[in-house]
Amino acid sequence: MDIDTKPSNNLQDVLETEIKTHLDIYFAQKNADQHYAALELRDAVLRLRRDGAFVAVPLFRVNTEPMGPHPIGSYEIWVPAETFSSVFSYLCMNRGNLSVCMYIVSISMLNSTPIRPSDHEFRSAWLGPSLPLDLSTLPLRSDEIPLQYPSLRLGYSSATTPLSLDDRRRLGANVENLLKNEKGAARAPSD
Question: Which end of the chain has the smaller Cβ count within 10 Å, N or C?
């Protein structure tokens, strides 16, 4: 699959590309210490969600053997954009020796279907050592749009009205104006 290496700077295109994040936590399933650490991290995420630190939803299932593209034990955590920064920060500081793959669930605006293999291969980042994923087990396209946990009204199920293009442009102009006297802040090109 070809990935455009030139970053988009078209405001409308960027805003119309919906991004939601999944995190896969990996552990050597035959290593009792890693298995325990992975479950301990999962329980800590659940407790912190309960206590209001962030919204993150570990799936009920924990893969105790390789499953799908995952070469070792794993579990998934769904994270809405609204709390991604908090969850990412927490995992950076608390993952121990576990590997975490962060990948987006993108929606192609042309056909409104998730494109899964490219999300795992080209639109992912790792905390800790990366692992080889078997992407041949993933469908090229799916008719299912992942409206996970619609009762939370976050992510794809958000009820918040997004800012209009004009509102975004005003916001951007205001940020540029506020930063014009900040010596350490780069200026946006004037085109």
Answer: C
Tell me how many degrees the CA angle 104-52-56 measures, rounded to the nearest 5.
Answer: 20
**In this structure, are residues 71 and 137 in contact, taking their beta carbons and an 8 Å threshold?**
no
- The contacts of residue 77 (CB under 8 Å, 6+ apart) are 22, 23, 24, 25, 42, 45, 56, 57, 58, 59, 87
By CB neighbour count within 10 A (0-12 exposed, 13-18 middle, 19+ buried), where does 36 fall?
exposed
Q: How many CB atoms lie within 10 A of CB 8?
A: 10
Q: What are 28-79's pLDDT values in tens digits?
A: 989 999 999 999 999 999 999 999 999 998 888 898 987 877 778 899 898 8
**What is the crossing angle of helices 32-50 and 84-94, to 10°?**
150
Task: Say if CB 154 and CB 162 are below 8 A apart.
Answer: no
Residue 51's Cβ-side half-sphere holds a number of Cα atoms within 13 Å equal to 7
Look up tokens 């056909």; give the residue.
111
Helix (H) or strand (E) holding 180: none
pTM: 0.74
> Is residue 109 a contact partner of residue 17, using CB atoms and an 8 Å limit?
yes
Give the 3-state secondary structure of residue 87.
helix
What are the angstrom distances between the C-alpha of 26 and each of 53, 101, 181?
Answer: 23, 8, 45
